Amino acid sequence: MRRILASSFTGSLIEYYDFLLYATAAAIVFNQIFFTDMGPGFAAFASFGTLAAGYVARPLGGAVFGHFGDRVGRKNVLVVSMLTMGVATCMIGLLPTTADIGVIAPVLLVLLRVVQGLAVGGEWGGAMLIALEHAPEKKRGFAASFANMGAPAGAALATLVVSVFTLLPGDQFLSWGWRVPFLLSAVLVTVGLVIRLKVAETPLFQELQATADAKKIPLVEVLTKNPKNLFLGIIAGTSVYSIAGIVTVWAVSYAVDSGADKTGVLNAKAAAAVVMVLTVILSARLSDRFGRRPVMLAGVVGAAACAFPILWLVESGTVWGFTAAVVLGQGLQGVIFGPFGAFTAELFPTRMRYTGASLAYQSASTFGAGFTPAIASGLVLAAGGGLTLLGGLWILAFAAAAAAILLTREGRTRDLASMR
């Protein structure tokens, strides 16, 4: 079980290192080298638009990889998704800039970002199910959270690596320094594959293979037999990702543009990711004892209450203000995120679980984190620099999430093997 949990965590960490590394670069680099003919506000909007392209591709990746994960097994699909992500990330690190090849550069950037989105769309569901479907019933929430811990851990690693290279002189950082973290993906993927190839297929999937109906298509079954659970899972998950999009992407750009030290901001973001890992562990443990819904609701209510205080801290334009905002935001995100893997998995039976859980999670990421940085930039521009519109939208997202969680059935005590 330790090897299984280590595989789930490590594989997720590596995939999200690659995927979220792009988010940091979009906040502080890409607007200066791929969108050079625009004003600062519109360049940031365009840069965050390319970020969104990866998130748009995630549900498609979840559907495609989920189909094969429900048909041929969780393990094999995870190997393919990791290789796909590693190749795309290394190619971004080698990509010429707009000054070198003109408009083709941002076009290629978007295409590679879409490939990243497809790959990570297949990663989370498999990594989470490898752990959850091996785990004892009373520890499913904790086991599933190891895939969730990989995301903030990968974000912390990516942010720290970029932070080291921001110490270079500005022209060197923009010339070659930003590329090195992307190229390091090759090393991480090699390590991840060695670990992942040693993990066995899950018992629930092995049992399913003996009775599976090859004519049934998992995606069709999810959409026709479990549309309500899919919809509620997406709405609940959007709250998690709206925090990520605002405090770890948009706020980084806003704080740096407001005069905060770039290296200090990135170090604060990395520290907040560590805080999130700790709250993920704690809330996952609590969800195994008290249920997924009560724990997630506590995080949703807390995040809604702290929406404007977090934004006011970001608005201060100081490293300390940003630090307080991102630590509070990621801490609350971890409370919701900890039980979320088990929450989504327990909405679907084994024969469609990879597809259903992946679609719910990845669609939530698209609506929450994918569009939020660009929407936040647009709302701030529309409000003349004010943050009131952004805060109001944030609270509405959490109100919808609370309603969705309340409408789902508690899954902590459900027998996954007998679900139909």
From TrEMBL:
Residues 4-409 form the Major facilitator superfamily (MFS) profile domain. It is a multi-pass membrane protein. SUPFAM superfamilies: MFS general substrate transporter. Pfam families: MFS_1. It is found in: Cell membrane. One of its GO terms (cellular component) is plasma membrane. Keywords: Cell membrane, Membrane, Transmembrane, Transmembrane helix, Transport. GO terms for molecular function: transmembrane transporter activity. The chain crosses the membrane at residues 16-35, 41-65, 77-95, 101-121, 142-168, 180-199, 230-252, 264-283, 295-314, 320-343, 364-383, 389-408. This is MFS family permease. It comes from Spinactinospora alkalitolerans. The lineage of its organism: Bacteria, Bacillati, Actinomycetota, Actinomycetes, Streptosporangiales.
